[in-house]
Amino acid sequence: MLLASTSRLFLLGLVLAAAAADPGPANNTAGYDTSRVGPSNAICVRETYQLDITSNNIQFHDVDSNANQTYLEALFQTFSTLMTNLTLMYEQPYRQPVHNSYNISGTLCVPKDVIENTFDVQLLLHGITWDSSYWDFVPDNSTEQYSYVYAAAEAGYVTFRYDQLGAGLSEHPEDAYNVVQAFTDLAIATKIAQMLRSGDIGGVKFDKVIGVGHSYGSITISEFMKKRLYYTPGPTGRF
């Protein structure tokens, strides 16, 4: 698993650092269609949630805080050819608890035609270098056939998607190496699942939280299930 591999965590930290580095308020929403909140068959509300999060993170040293594409490509080339453990050059020998309050932007979508499954909610986690907007992908504002949120609403499912830390409309921490890590993302996903169960999002205490992940998001969900936090065993992956 990714969260158990320090080598992969190191590279993940670098990728997240480049993606999460704050380019300034004017550019944080670049490429994000803030005018679209959800599909036509759902009632959607986008809010920013302030979460108090504690995670036990890896600490890095001697890495470039301004990691651009050239720096990352050179590092990947070194990693792929080096026969020794590259992470030992940059990773501190200890983990450090990191406690912060983060602003996370999330969108809850409830089907307009309430049929079934409305007491379950699908928690949608996106991949690295992306944000949650692609779950409701509509090219050229035309057909909604490519929107996952639309398809879920058609089937009667409530969905909640959020921009992971350092992406989209969520907060972009300055310390992307030691803060924006897989451990932090797991803690945030755990907190949000708890909020969905307790009624702190949308005012509804959902019976089940169904994890739906793409790429890195699926890894977070798998680790979440491995720890059996709010997880009911079964083929559907329900928390």
UniProtKB/TrEMBL annotation:
<feature type="domain" description="AB hydrolase-1">
    <location>
        <begin position="123"/>
        <end position="232"/>
    </location>
</feature>
<keyword id="KW-0732">Signal</keyword>
<dbReference type="Pfam" id="PF12697">
    <property type="entry name" value="Abhydrolase_6"/>
</dbReference>
<dbReference type="InterPro" id="IPR029058">
    <property type="entry name" value="AB_hydrolase_fold"/>
</dbReference>
<feature type="signal peptide">
    <location>
        <begin position="1"/>
        <end position="21"/>
    </location>
</feature>
<dbReference type="InterPro" id="IPR000073">
    <property type="entry name" value="AB_hydrolase_1"/>
</dbReference>
<protein>
    <submittedName>
        <fullName>Alpha/beta-hydrolase</fullName>
    </submittedName>
</protein>
